[in-house]
Amino acid sequence: MKLAVLIRAHNFSAQEAVLAERLEAAFRSSVTFVTDDSESPVSTERFPKTGVIRRRVRELIGGRALPQWGWQFGDVFYYAASEAFPDATHFALIESDVLLSDAGARRLSELFLERDEDILAPRLRRTEEPPSFSKDLEALDRDNKVACFFPVTRVSVKALDLMQSLRRRERKVHGCASMTKQSWPAWLLTKTSRPQISQKLHPRSLTL
Predict the structure, then answer these.
(1) By the 8 A CB rule, do 115 and 108 touch?
(2) In whole angstroms, how far apart are CA 46 and each of 8, 13, 63, 81?
(3) Alpha carbon 15 to chain centroid, angstroms
(4) What's the whole-model pTM score?
(5) Which domains does the chain have, with CATH numbers?
(6) Residues 6 or more apart in contact with residue 51 via CB below 8 angstroms
(7) Burial of 14 by CB count in 10 Å (0-12 exposed, 13-18 middle, 19+ buried)?
(8) What is the pLDDT of residues 72-100, one digit of tens each?
(9) For labelling, which of 23, 75, 117, 135 has a CA lying 20 to 30 Å from the CA of 187?
């Protein structure tokens, strides 16, 4: 496995720097920030960065996005990173407001580096009723009773390709991107008739 470790951030402060340092130590690799640079570039000091502007979002999803795309559509940063790291087989995306101790970062690295499923995400599950962020999946002929918790995820290139293809399809159906980030790993639960979901592992997992 060749894993690219990413931090999604809207600004940079001591909190983001501490998170990056802990992840660097735990994964024993560089950590790259992914940022919404639509209004102005976000400085990440010594840490490498992949910045995305609104024009690039349109290219990645096949059409326009809502003004607050950087907050609502975190999956777009995965697509940008996959082009920035063409040799990576998996991508880990951690949001900058996630608090991890040194021990927590080490445990996360163990999970992300040892598991071979296509998706790891907390609370990846089916639901009794459609969550608000998944309701539009019905218009795409998909089961909308699915959900996950997005701030800590790891996905394979295979999963990213499926996520991006659905994002582009959504653009054709709705005219713009509307579904939020939590829909995407969750949607892949409906892509196969026999997803292998671990009910004991946290984060939960999915093999396509």
Answers:
(1) no
(2) 16, 12, 33, 18
(3) 20
(4) 0.79
(5) 3-207 (3.90.550)
(6) 34, 35, 36, 37, 41, 42
(7) exposed
(8) 677 888 999 999 999 999 999 999 988 88
(9) 23
